[in-house]
Amino acid sequence: MKRRDIWIIGAVAVLAGLLLLLGQVIKPAPPVKALPTLSITNAREPDSGGPLEEANSYLRIRQGQEYYHLVPLNGPGQIVIRQDNGWENVIYIDKDSVVMHSANCPNQDCVNMGEMTLSNIDTRVFQRWIVCLAHQISLELMPREEALRLMEDSAP
Amino acid sequence: MISTRNLALSGLFVAIMLILGYLEKILSLGLGYGIKLGLSNCVLLLCLYWFGTPISVALMLAKVFLSSILFGGFNPISLSLSLAGGAISMLGMALMVFTVREVSPVGAGVVGGVLHNVGQLLVAILVYSYPVLYSYIALLLVVGAVMGGITGTIVVRLKHFLPYERRKQFGFLSRKDEGQAEA
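ok -> structure tokens follow
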């Protein structure tokens, strides 16, 4: 090890510390306006613009740059997202919880991200997100108030 | 012009990188969270000292494309992330080895490990709208630095395999080498 090695390691440590602090200070930005939907197979779809079905938490699913309808997390269910190129993600939902059950992506990172609930999003590394980067799918868990705000913002 | 010996060595190094990458994958050494050990990075760092930048870049490209075809289902998104990580990491290590100097393989490995994660995150966030999670980025920086330090240490252990003139160029000569030079 040479002296400059120590500088490099020190710089990385300082940068990581700053990012950790930044993570504490900066709260997640409010969600952007919802876009038109894609279809979800095997899941109930609420009507566009209609009142949100009663639930404590909602799941917002994005594929690429497009958003699906908000999915109320008020009971057990399964969401399957199949894309034309054969990519498939199977999501299990339950009351206030969601997990990526399986995916045919190469790295399986999304499946390993585990269960996400309203009570564990503050302690999870990925906070309120489950992301399948290889299939460009992200799941964002949001509490009811935030979901209502989102619906109001996106209403015509 | 690349010598036959170096061509053969290059093929061997690519094979070793692919095997290391595959072992990490099947042994689930990924630690979850999309974090990989990146053991093949030590081969690339050794290549930088051995062959210089152009051949090392070619070997990095070969590794990225071949592992994507063989083990990654040729997924375009994963491929673009690997390319970004590999390219920026290679750039950083080459700068450390050939421009900054006075940095040991450990320092160069740390820079390479950190920049690999930085490159992947930049593409994920800017191109694929990955959520910006500061604590996750901090974790990736620390893991990149630790793993880079380990790969750098492996290169320190392997440096005596380098050809004599390369060892001389980078100040890796051992006492035995110097004794031979004097004799």
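Chain A touches chain B through 37 residues (CB under 8 Å).
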